[in-house]
Amino acid sequence: MASACLVGRCCRYDTEHRRLPLVTRLMGRADVRVVAFCPEVAGGLSVPRSPAAISGGDGGDVLDGLAVVRTVDGRDVTAAFLSGARKAVELVRRHKPDLVVLKARSPSCGLRNVHCAETRGALHPGAGVTAALLRRLFPELPLCTEEELADASLVRSLPE
Predict the structure, then answer these.
(1) 57-69, pLDDT tens digit by residue?
(2) Whole-angstrom Cα distance, residue 24 to residue 85?
(3) Euclidean distance between CA atoms 70 and 55, whole angstroms
(4) How would you list the strands of the sheet with 36-37, edge to edge?
(5) How many whole angstroms separate alpha carbon 157 and alpha carbon 150?
(6) Model pTM score
(7) Mean pLDDT throughout 98-122?
(8) CA angle (110, 65, 40) in 5-degree steps
C-alpha cells in the first residue's frame, strides 16, 4: 500500500504528485501489488485544497481529541482527516499489505514529523493522523516513508 501521490496521482493539496521511481518500479513487478490511497481525498477533501497542518500536537493527539487539523485559512478539517484514516484501516484489513509506504511530513501520512500549524508549517516531531492510527491498530505492520523506502533492507523484505 502506498500514498497515492507517490504512485503519480495528482491528489496533493496543490494538484501535484510526488511520483517515486522506486514505487513505480515495484508496481511493474508481477509479484508486487501496490494499492494506492490518499486519506485526505478519501476523507472528502478536494483537489486542489488549502494546505493543512496539525494544531496542538501530532496525529496521535488528533486521534485522542487533543489536537485538530486546520487549513492555512483556519478551517477545521479534522473530521475529513479522521475519516480518511479510518478508510486506510479498512484497506489494510482488506489487502493485508506487507509494507505501507507513506508520504513524509504529511499531516495524514507523515511518520517521523509533520507540519505544525502553530509554527507556520515548521516540522514538529510526531506522526500524521493516518500514520498514527495505522501504528496504533497494526503495530506489526511495517510502515516507512518514501525517503526510507530506498533503504535496501526494506525493499528486500518484500515478497519475492
Answers:
(1) 999 999 999 999 9
(2) 24
(3) 7
(4) 36-37, 2-3, 100-102, 143-145
(5) 12
(6) 0.90
(7) 87
(8) 40
